[in-house]
């Protein structure tokens, strides 16, 4: 047990050092990273540099900084999840969800998707997004909980941080099916929140709202009853074929 604890502490230290280097967002830091991260880090910096070059031509390079900060934030919560995993720690839902809603990547993806959009997307749009308005939080909830419900069994078999399912079961002493039922209620409430955002006046451009809605729709396609993101099943294949190959002309 003592050796296991030492090993866990060492891994946590290494993860923290890696996250610190990522947070600096500087190619000169690459030599401080382990070999398995160098390729990813180099390519990540290149992607955002290319984005910045393109946006600079339109006078919108400021947009890329929001995307970079979102990526840094996501990297930080990965460290928290790694720490939980190495300590075999199962957090309560109130502790799990703030971290898991960031680690699912949908806040970062939403902000990055705004970068190349039209002029109606302003600094205010990005400032609202980073503060996670109701529609973005709802999209994050749909992404995280639908993914956790269909993927947690396989993830636990291969070694993974606890999902919302394990957290809910332990905290409330309920069965797996009862946890599914409660988490599905939260998913349904999140869809209601998205609908509400479209029905009431808002300062956010409609194009930004539609982008977030479409991200939620992707999750509904890929994680409805199965993990079709990890292993594409017949349902997802049929839907994608109908949309892109056998689509009905409008």
UniProtKB/TrEMBL annotation:
<dbReference type="InterPro" id="IPR050148">
    <property type="entry name" value="Terpene_synthase-like"/>
</dbReference>
<feature type="domain" description="Terpene synthase metal-binding">
    <location>
        <begin position="20"/>
        <end position="193"/>
    </location>
</feature>
<dbReference type="InterPro" id="IPR008949">
    <property type="entry name" value="Isoprenoid_synthase_dom_sf"/>
</dbReference>
<protein>
    <submittedName>
        <fullName>(+)-delta-cadinene synthase isozyme A-like</fullName>
    </submittedName>
</protein>
<dbReference type="Pfam" id="PF03936">
    <property type="entry name" value="Terpene_synth_C"/>
</dbReference>
<keyword id="KW-0479">Metal-binding</keyword>
<dbReference type="GO" id="GO:0010333">
    <property type="term" value="F:terpene synthase activity"/>
</dbReference>
<dbReference type="GO" id="GO:0016114">
    <property type="term" value="P:terpenoid biosynthetic process"/>
</dbReference>
<dbReference type="InterPro" id="IPR005630">
    <property type="entry name" value="Terpene_synthase_metal-bd"/>
</dbReference>
<dbReference type="GO" id="GO:0000287">
    <property type="term" value="F:magnesium ion binding"/>
</dbReference>
<dbReference type="InterPro" id="IPR034741">
    <property type="entry name" value="Terpene_cyclase-like_1_C"/>
</dbReference>
């Amino acid at each position: 047990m003592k050796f296991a604890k030492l090993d866990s502490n060492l891994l946590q230290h290494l993860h923290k050092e890696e996250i610190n280097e990522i947070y600096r967002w500087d190619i000169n830091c690459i030599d401080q990273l382990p070999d398995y991260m160098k390729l990813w880090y180099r390519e990540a910096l290149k992607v955002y540099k290319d984005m910045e070059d393109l946006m600079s031509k339109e006078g919108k390079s400021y947009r890329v900084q929001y995307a970079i900060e979102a990526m840094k934030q996501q990297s930080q919560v990965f460290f928290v999840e790694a720490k939980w995993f190495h300590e075999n720690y199962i957090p309560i839902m109130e502790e799990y969800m703030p971290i898991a809603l960031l680690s699912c990547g949908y806040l970062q993806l939403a902000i990055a998707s705004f970068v190349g959009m039209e002029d109606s997307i302003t600094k205010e749009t990005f400032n609202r997004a980073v503060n996670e308005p109701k529609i973005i939080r709802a999209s994050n909830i749909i992404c995280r909980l639908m993914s956790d419900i269909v993927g947690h069994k396989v993830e636990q078999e291969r070694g993974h941080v606890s999902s919302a399912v394990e957290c809910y079961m332990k905290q409330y002493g309920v069965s797996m099916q009862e946890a599914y039922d409660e988490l599905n209620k939260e998913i349904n409430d999140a869809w209601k929140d998205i609908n509400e955002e479209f029905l009431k006046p808002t300062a956010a451009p409609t194009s930004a709202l539609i982008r977030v809605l479409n991200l939620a729709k992707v999750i509904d396609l890929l994680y409805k009853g199965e993990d079709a993101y990890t292993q594409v099943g017949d349902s997802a294949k049929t839907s994608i074929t109908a949309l892109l190959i056998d689509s009905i002309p409008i």
